[in-house]
Design goal:
CATH class of the largest domain: Alpha Beta
CATH superfamily of the largest domain: Histidine kinase-like ATPase, C-terminal domain
Shape: globular
Number of domains: 4
Distance between the termini: 45 Å
Bound molecules: ligand TTJ
CATH architecture of the largest domain: 2-Layer Sandwich
Largest sheet: 9 strands, mixed
Number of helices: 20
Helix content: 25-40%
Length: about 650
């Protein structure tokens, strides 16, 4: 029950309160239903829920600055300079509108009107849910020279909305501070970098908005401001920063049709990937949907029409496929509509049919015009697509050939593979080992029943920089594909996977890290399901061997080395060897330190799916041509793969 000491004589007020409290109790009972999970992800979701309200106000045209501050004790403050949540009495509830916003489930978006509500996405559950899941929450509203305030604890108001001070007559805005409930969340520590990524994305998706992120925690002090005048146009530039653009300017289309506001930005680069990211009301739609379908249709149709009309494609030649046109294209599609319908297993796929037509017609019309006005750009894209078409044809022939061969000869495993004898994938592991010599030690060391070894010669092909035909022709890649057994692309079938652990084993040095990254890039681009389902691991060889009085210790990093040395005493009897590579260990040592399931350390590779664009960027930055962004990136990220939270 409400514990507040208010002396409100309105009987209805109390009655309303009871109903309201029941509503928020439900949120505390089943938090996962409202915010997806109570993990770190759910915790950060609280911030997004609050910020979404300010972004709505910005989209309505009344707010241009949002500030998000991580305070000490893991509280978060969100401030905007919008009109302020209304403080007047809401007739239906008999309460100030602001109190309804924070204490009634699904009240978000009922007030105001105009503009597009961001809420209504995957979760989009609103401020009351954040309130329900907080130890306490305080809201302050700046309106007509007054500062209004209300405090809640676990969703209950502590006193009726009151005026606590004065402000400049023309200052308006809302400030919310909340403290997530530690009895609900597994962990209440906010991660600056996680918030940073989402705030950057928000700023890209809402052109002209200024979002400041500030960390005030002791020892962690830092801040960053995001402001993109060009919105998603700058998003595409950002995503392409480590690649060579095929032409200078990002192509941009914008318009509104049937209640759907559409923005599309695209630019081709020298890579071979299609990097298209779609959003609905600022929420990512990893499974695409009608907006993406409309975009693809418009793109294919418009380029084929242009190529035909301008004799780049003769009448008797095969039309360009969508895939050909999208090769090496980075694109962002952002639509905003008032009642998005989400479909699919994870509710991450847009279903509204009007979005298909709106995107299709806006892109077709504006892209056609753009191509007429920019013939050099049009020609460059068409020619790149024609090359893609030829490469795809060559790759298909190569694949058909291997398919026919395997049909005739059965699946022959690669010669270099030392397979295990157990045939149950659940028990089996495959070590992908750098270099033939380490491969030799590993073959001797392994447990033959369950451990297979596939040595790779030197650096594997960088799939970020090669066309499909070359990738399929590469011996190391072919060996991996056949060893895994899953096939690839349209043939990919995870149920055929021959090993439930794919373990990348490389030297613990810079070259080894590079080879691991090349491997992960290949897996991420061609068999992402293997990573998603948790089958991919990194082996962790030791960095040091310490010997003293015939006893041996291994240290996997410098901290561990120090710990061991403190324990055994730092004296002249210590013999410390720093391993430069797997090759320096004999097979027994390799087994003991890196391969023995009883004693080894394995790191599982996972994909943090909050921001696919950032993961793609990580790989292209690491693997791309440009030296400068790669150096900056590596310097900025102590770990060599950001987002691959290994
Ligand atoms: C709605 O229409 C009438 C004028 O005020 C509009 C409004 O509510 N604007 C608004 C809400 N701006 N900012 C918010 C908001 C900000 C935070 C930080 C948290 C919440 C729940 C709302």
């Amino acid at each position: 029950m409400n514990t507040d000491n208010n002396t409100n004589t309105n009987a209805e007020y109390g009655a309303d309160q009871i109903q309201i409290l029941e509503g928020l109790e439900a949120v505390r009972k089943r938090p996962g239903m409202y915010i997806g999970s109570t993990s770190s992800r759910g915790l950060h979701h609280l911030v997004y829920e609050i910020v979404d309200n300010s972004v709505d106000e910005a989209l309505a045209g009344y707010c241009d600055t949002i500030e998000v501050t991580i305070l000490k004790d893991n509280c978060v403050k969100v401030t905007d300079n919008g009109r302020g949540i209304p403080v007047g009495i809401n007739q239906k509830a008999g309460l100030p509108a602001v109190e309804v916003v924070f204490t009634v489930l699904h009240a978000g978006g009922k007030f105001g009107g105009g503009g597009y509500k961001v809420s209504g996405g995957l979760h989009g559950v609103g401020a009351s849910v954040v309130n329900a899941l907080s130890n306490w929450l305080e809201v302050e509203i700046f309106h007509e020279g007054k500062v209004y305030k209300q405090r809640y604890e676990r969703g209950n108001s502590m006193y009726p909305l009151k005026v606590v001070g004065e402000c400049e007559e023309d200052k308006t805005g809302t400030q919310v501070v909340f403290s997530p409930d530690g009895s609900i969340f597994e962990d209440t520590v906010f991660d600056y970098n996680v918030l940073k990524q989402r705030m950057r994305e928000m700023a890209f998706l809402t052109k002209g908005i200024r979002i400041r992120l500030i960390d005030e925690r002791e020892g962690l002090e830092q801040e960053k401001e995001f402001y993109y005048e060009g919105g998603i146009k700058e998003f595409v530039t950002y995503l392409n920063k480590s690649k060579e653009a095929l032409y200078e300017n990002v192509i941009y289309c914008e318009g509104e049709k049937d209640g759907v506001y559409v923005e599309v930005a695209l630019q081709h680069n020298d890579s071979y990937n299609d990097a298209t990211y779609s959003f609905v009301n600022n929420i990512t739609t990893p499974e695409g949907g009608t907006h993406l379908a409309g975009f693809r249709n418009a793109l294919t149709k418009t380029f084929n029409a242009y190529a035909k009309n301008n004799k780049i494609l003769k009448d008797n030649e095969t039309a360009l496929s969508g895939e050909d046109i999208r090769e090496g294209m980075t694109a962002v599609i952002s639509v905003k509509l008032s009642e998005p319908q989400f479909e699919g297993q994870t509710k991450q796929k847009l279903g509204n049919s009007e979005a298909r037509g709106a995107v299709d017609s806006i892109v077709s019309e504006q892209l056609t015009y753009f191509l007429e006005q920019n013939p050099a750009v049009a020609k460059a894209i068409c020619e790149k697509s024609l090359l893609a078409q030829r490469a795809r044809e060559a790759a298909r022939k190569a694949r058909d050939l291997t398919r026919r061969k395997t049909a005739l000869e059965g699946t022959s495993l690669p010669g270099k593979l030392a397979d295990c004898s157990d045939k149950d994938p659940k028990n089996c592991e495959i070590f992908i080992v750098e270099g033939d010599s380490a491969g030799g030690s590993a073959k001797t060391a392994r447990s033959r029943a369950t451990q297979a070894i596939l040595p790779l010669r030197g650096k594997i092909l960088n799939v970020e920089k090669a066309r499909l035909d070359k990738i399929y022709g590469n011996a190391e890649i072919k060996a991996m594909i056949t060893a895994f057994g899953t096939g690839i692309h349209e043939d990919f079938d995870i149920s055929k996977l021959r090993y439930h652990k794919i373990i990348i084993m490389t030297d613990a040095d810079v070259d080894g890290a590079h080879i691991s990254t090349l491997m992960l890039t290949f897996l991420y681009r061609f068999m992402p399901e293997l990573i998603r389902q948790g089958y991919v691991y990194l082996a962790k060889p030791p960095l040091y061997k310490i010997e003293k009085n015939k006893k041996v210790w291994y240290a996997y990093d410098d901290i561990e080395l120090n710990n061991i040395l403190s324990e055994i005493g730092r004296d002249g009897n210590n013999k410390i060897q720093r391993y430069k590579g797997l090759g320096e260990m004999d097979s027994e040592q390799l087994w003991e330190t890196t391969m023995d399931p009883e004693t080894r350390i394995l790191e599982r590779v996972t994909i943090d799916d909050t921001s696919t664009s950032e993961i793609d960027l990580t790989f292209t930055t690491l693997m791309g041509d440009k030296v400068e962004p790669r150096r900056e990136f590596i310097e900025a990220n102590a770990q060599y793969v950001q987002n691959l939270d290994v």
